[in-house]
Amino acid sequence: MDFGGANALYFWELFYYTPMMMAQRLLQEQQFTLAEQWLRYVWSPSGYVVRGNQEDRFWNVRPLQEDTGWNDSPLKALDPDAVAQNDPMHYKVATFMRGLDLLIARGDTAYRKLERDSLAEAKVWYSQALNLLGEQSYIEDDLEWTEPTLGDASSDAAAARHLAVLCLLCEGKTRELKAMTSPKVAGAIEFLPEANEVMQGYWLTLRQRMFNLRHNLTLDGQPLLLPLFAKPADPKALLNAAVAAESGAGAGLAPVDLPLWRFEPMLDSARGLVSQLIQFGNSVQNVLERKDAESLTALLQNQGFELMASSIRLQEGVQQELEAEKSILSQALASAQQRLTSYTRLYDENINARERSAMDALTASQSIAAGAKIAHMSAAAADLVPNIFGFAAGGSKYGGVANAVGIGITLAADAASIAGTRIMQEEAYRRRREEWEIQRNNAQGEVLQVEAQLTALDVRRESAQLQTNYLKTQQGQLRAGLDFLQNKFSNVALYSWMRGRLASIYFQFYDLAASRCLMAERAWQWASGESRTFIRGGGWQGTWAGLTCGEGLMLNLAQLEAAYMKGSRRALEVTRTVSLAELYRSDKLAEEDRFELASAVSAMIGGDKTEAGSVANGIRLENGELIATVTLADLEIAGDYPQQLGAQRRIKQVSVSLPALLGPYQDIQAVMNYTGGQQPLPPGCEQMAISQGIKDSGMFTPDFNDSRWLPFEGANVAEGSLALRFPQAKGKQEDVLKTLSDIILHVNYTILP
After folding, report:
1. pLDDT of 184 strictly over 70
2. Does an H or E element contain 374, and which?
3. Structural domain boundaries of the chain?
């Protein structure tokens, strides 16, 4: 198989371009298994097994297998394919990079699932890519670089030196290369070989991926919180996954954290993003339809061109048939004209001289025969005269009279016969001439008929020629239209590129929209206290380019909103005021844990002791911070109202009042934290800053209609603990804390039936 002969381009297209094009297309569409299969038609890192035997080769294309080094002099051409065909090492590097892209894409896809098994799978793909890359080579910067002019750099001498440098680089002769490229060498003005930044970027990307995996970070570097064990399988979810797998849908959705925003704004945000996803899907469908329309138009143009070529060949056959028919008619005309000439001559001649001589001779012969009979009749008459002279009696023949009469009658009959024969002969000639006249007229009619047919044939030939010219003109127009369809900017190739490009963007956009929908669902679960799910995975069906995935998410959002509207209840709003000073000295605590808040704080500030009470309910001085803790369960807030009013009792908002002596324009600094709840709070809601000390909620203006969750909102009133920290307790805030007599909590909570 000669890749340098007349069929070289065909072999390149068949054995390299086509598999690489399919691998690239499938990679863009996230069909990694099929992309790997097509890539193995060109290159396989694990080698090839033929008839059960492992072959010592990694390339499946002959030029790539045979070429093991860079050419000494590259081809001076602007076409990259021509350069790569001249030196297949370029194609080998491009194929190797495409294999790395495939491994990294598979690893990223597994990474985005955010499951322990998928993270392990991602590490396997990244490790395989790193093993293929090997150790990153160190490229030393040239610190002695000078700036030559373009005129000097483009000289023939510089070009020759540049080729020599490339040869040394390919051969690995670093010492000679360094000496030749040193600016101290006369004429060393060529540009240094450029580093492959894309190849260098693979090491950076893979090192970043492995760093994020080892440090429990997401793909974009955010902290990753995964449960130790996977969530128990939901039979309904397994059934949905099985149905999705049967229909060719994508993988399930990754879990999301509780968002900071409430359900209503999250629902609006998710709905807006899904609407954009639907519009994006319509754009993808439009591109697919336009691509199919362009393909159909090109197909129809090709078919029309082929049909037109067949029509032209058919018309040319008609012309040949007309030419053959003309030849036949010409011969028929010549034959008819010959018959016309012959019969006209015969008709005009009528009786020729020989026929007339024969007829005269026959008449003369019959006349002579009649004359002879006259003589016989005379002889018979003479027989009546006696031929004996004297007195003798006799000598006459008495039968001569009868004989003469008979001969006379015969003579009359012969005369009538001669006249009848001549009349019959003349009538025969007259009949013959009439027949010749008929034949002449027929021949003349045939001549006129053939001439008319030839005239009609000329018209048909001209019409056939015009039809052929018309078909050829139409064929040329079809060819021009087909060339336009193939060469115009918005052709099938453009829509194919757009389809691949939009496929990758569409999938990522679907991930964002699905994640936003899950965040809205998580916000609803947090607000309602339910664990039902509505956002179904498997909405992405790669077989059908992901179409209608947005409509499926919109349906899930509608179901989620319906559940929200159906399950909405008017919550009872309750305010509970708690004095920690009273709690610390009440009998709710063990006797050894009871203490007076004001005296304990003064003692700690004075340095007499560092803690009072218990870890759950008490105060302590730690690293210069005064920390007051309280367990929500010990406040017995859940027992304030009967249980039949509702079992779900959650904090809405917490305010803090700090009775202390504050000077004019003096603030207090404290931070309250929430820990120990079974359900984590939304991000940023687990703490708040206290600065005023008078029913301070940690916000400039308390707003229960805030689109974001308030600090500590949603926490169970019987779970977790609160810790109030005063930084710089023995410094800046020492005087204020000495006057602190109590810590009052204003707990606003709701009761849902």
Report:
1. no
2. helix 353-382
3. 8-139+195-230, 243-308+490-567, 311-466, 572-752
